[in-house]
Write a structure and sequence with these properties.
The protein is an alpha+beta fold. Helices cover about 60% and strands about 10% of the residues.
């Protein structure tokens, strides 16, 4: 349960716009209270070598500086927020709605908004401490505080310039696809081990009788699974638990998403043990209103497939972007071909015992279809897109050294050839594509892909 809370909190900090700016505003207010007190304590006792760099104006000048900083920063913040919203709208309409998390999770945007809001909050907080002689009998100018406000204002101007340069780079579809690629590659390294022979053992077979179901207590997308908590609960109940929905699946309250059965050959668990196990498994899963890339490898492929499908729509008609998206998909699938893809098996005693928990995850055939199916459906009439799909299959076949994915690749090749047969190509284009199809077949018959 603690892991799920930590995972949700971490995802919120990474993918929401408000946490970092909120923390910055709180810190700025605290600093705006503390620095004037330091000014009051050091009043008249600052060394000349230091005071020459501090603000040297009177109370009215200090008020003018702080008011100018506060007024200009709130305007700049509004401009920055407007540009960010426009970028989000463009990414949603032209590329994919699922790419919005790429922008809302951008650390540069977080830090820029945090700096602007912190400077605004700090200037207002310090402004209240500036006193003229008629107000309190003695004028007070927090020299250090006003100087620091000036430093923050200069930093904000530089941040605005860098933000505009960053935004023009981030709005490019190539940059977005590269970020999705990098995020998916990172998730893949954690989700799937490199050693194809690793693992605690085979998936335990389910007995014909004695299995029971676990219904979801809330609806939403499955975002995380705390396998340690499920293993502890299953060991205590003497059961094997199989979570039949993987990260990214949609859960509906009251419908089954997991099953369990006794691990010692009993016909069924005791009613109390079964009920405790159901509660523990529900507490160990995290759900949310949208898919995240925390444990969901298929989410990255879905984003890239959406970019390709959107680029092939009649309103955009950009097959080059679809070809580039398929290039990223190909690299990810090649990396997956080198790993053990399939259900996550969790054993007792750190792998020393039998399998206690089985968590469903997409197999290679499912991920391969996710990466190429939409591009094939919407772009097969374009010879360049069809050629890139065939090249993808050839590249993945080459990387499949063990030959364990040959059947899935052959199936995709057959589907692609069937779709190509119905497309209207010229004789030269059809000949080129048929040659590429033959090259895919040769790669599948090669030493690394197993026998035909």
């Amino acid at each position: 349960m603690r892991r799920n809370v930590f995972t949700r909190t971490r995802q919120a900090l990474r993918s929401e716009l408000w946490p970092v700016p909120t923390l910055a505003v709180v810190a700025a207010i605290a600093l705006g209270v503390a620095l004037p007190q330091l000014d009051a304590a050091l009043d008249g006792r600052t060394a000349d070598s230091v005071s020459r760099y501090l603000f040297g104006g009177g109370p009215e000048a200090a008020r003018s500086v702080l008011e100018s900083i506060a007024g200009s920063l709130i305007t700049v913040t509004s401009l920055t927020f407007s540009l960010t919203v426009v970028t989000l709208q463009l990414a949603s309409s032209q590329f994919s709605p699922r790419l919005l998390r790429t922008f809302t999770g951008d650390r540069f945007v977080h830090v820029t908004l945090a700096l602007f809001l912190a400077t605004f909050s700090y200037a207002l907080t310090v402004l209240r401490t500036v006193r003229t002689a008629p107000e309190a009998g003695q004028a007070f100018v927090p020299e250090i505080s006003v100087t620091f406000a000036f430093v923050l204002a200069v930093a904000s101007v530089l941040a605005l310039v860098l933000f505009l340069a960053h935004l023009t780079r981030e709005i490019r579809v190539e940059t977005m696809m590269m970020r999705v690629h990098a995020e998916t590659n990172s998730v893949m390294r954690h989700a799937y081990p490199e050693d194809a022979a690793s693992g605690p053992g085979p998936v335990p077979s389910r007995p014909p009788a004695g299995t029971d179901t676990i219904e979801a207590e809330k609806s939403g997308f499955l975002t995380s699974v705390d396998t340690s908590a499920i293993r502890s609960a299953a060991r205590e109940a003497g059961a094997v638990v199989a979570v039949d929905r993987g990260p990214g699946s949609s859960l509906v309250r009251g419908t089954p998403f997991a099953t369990f059965w006794p691990a010692d050959g009993r016909l069924a668990l005791a009613a109390d043990d079964a009920e405790r196990l159901r509660r523990a498994v529900n507490a160990a899963i995290g759900t949310g209103p949208e898919r995240t890339a925390a444990e969901d490898v298929g989410f990255g492929l879905r984003q890239l497939a959406d970019v390709a499908a959107k680029a092939l729509s009649p309103g955009i008609n950009d097959p080059t972007t679809a070809v580039h998206a398929l290039g990223h998909v190909s690299d990810l699938l090649c990396r997956l071909a080198e790993r053990r893809v399939g259900p996550l098996l969790v054993a007792d005693d750190d792998g020393g015992g039998g399998v206690r928990v089985v968590v469903s995850r997409p197999g290679f055939a499912e991920l391969l279809d996710l990466g190429v199916a939409q591009a094939r459906q919407y772009g097969i009439d374009d010879p360049d897109v069809a050629a890139r799909i065939l090249e993808l299959l050839r590249e993945v076949a080459w990387c499949d050294r063990s030959g364990s994915h040959t059947a899935a690749l052959r199936d995709q090749l057959a589907r692609t050839r069937e779709a190509m047969a119905a497309a209207a190509y010229g004789s030269a284009e059809r000949g080129r594509l048929e040659a590429l199809g033959g090259a895919v077949g040769d790669a599948l018959r090669g030493p690394g892909a197993g026998s035909a």
